[in-house]
Amino acid sequence: MTIQDRVPALQAEYGIPSAAIGVLRDGEITEFAVGVKNVETGEPATTDTVYQIGSMTKTWTALAFLQLVDEGKAALDEPVRTYLPEFAVADPETTAKVTARHLLDHTNGIEESFGDPGEDDDVHERMVANIADAPQVFPLGRTHGYSAALGYAILARITEVLDGKGWDDVMRDRLFVPLSLTSTNTRRDQVDESRAATGHLLRSPAEGPVVTPMDYLPRAFGPGGGLTSTVREVLTLAQVLLNAGTAPDGRRIVSAAGVREMQRSRVPVPDPYLFGPEWALGLIVCDWHGETVYATDGSTIGQNARLRLLPDRNTAVVVLTNGGPRETFARRVFGELLGNVPELPEPDPGLKLDLRRYEGVYERPGTRYEVSAGDGGLHLTLDVDPMQAAFLGKPARLTYELLPVSPTHFLVPPADPREDPRTVAIYDFADGAARYLHTNCRVHPRRGSSTSSPART
Prior knowledge:
With 457 residues, the protein is an alpha+beta fold. The protein contains twelve helices and 20 strands.
């Protein structure tokens, strides 16, 4: 049975309206699509359907910045203030020392307190202006902690200043036009709505997928998550990364040295299981039983994009969907096509932990986790966003088991079939108790812990 035969069953199992899948092998692309773009219209998805690719956008923004490095206009380890003299955050050390590398690999630690910068062309300039009082989630360089919007918006602002044009035009002129991409865009008003997939959420298996209440992410998320694209055009980007910086037609997009730096400059990820053990410059580094695989992933409100790059096999696979779980479906497809995909770890019931070291509230603005001990183990309680809870019919608080894998890593079984299993890291015991909780790439400091410890750069 071929993957084309298997996917419809997986699609139905996970409540996914449509999926578009592409395989690049030795320069040749095979692609197919199943399902519908919108459950309300029933229009079929095709390989030309345009999907939101979410944080996969970060890889594109990173490539545009590395072009500036190639040209000698920017440097990865030069302070941001070299290019943006007005840049400032609450922490003086971060203000003076944060670099593009810190932004690219998510070790800058700046809280995403950028307010409402609006939807106009000066959105990135406003974001930079709005963070003068933004605190640190963690000291500069101390740990990895994903920045969904702010870090790459600062990078975008640097490109705007150096290129003398808006980020949308930077991306068009530096990547889309040279790569002959006609279906990849940065703005929702550029999307051909007749080809666009609609996002869906699942409130219950019985009801099936419903159209998302949020069509697109705000423009502030553009450089970190705003692109729309197709299977074939995502694989065009993959060819650049597999071919040492050259496009399929041989045109040089970024230097081979730039691609090497993008892949080899790495920081450890506290939770190594869900995505990968290391983060590079706009790429996740995965270890598939000794084989190095690069990943770039993204999700919006009801759409998901997953790309895996396997240099040793000269292969890439992309999975685009407009609903369903973020990880499980794509993981199954990668397993069918590529094999060797690592599974999430099994818990170790023999581990003896001092549960008091983990207990506490770990929080950021808008997100709160509480770790508590009971019945001989640990539990994780999440305060659900009120709007999400109301739309999806979820309770205001959800509690999960934390099953230990190691003294710092835990498996979190799903509470219902709509959810993926996930992993959590609770770590940094410098003060006796854990200082951080890291899950879904985001880091959350324990309430009452200090964020003023010396930086680890």
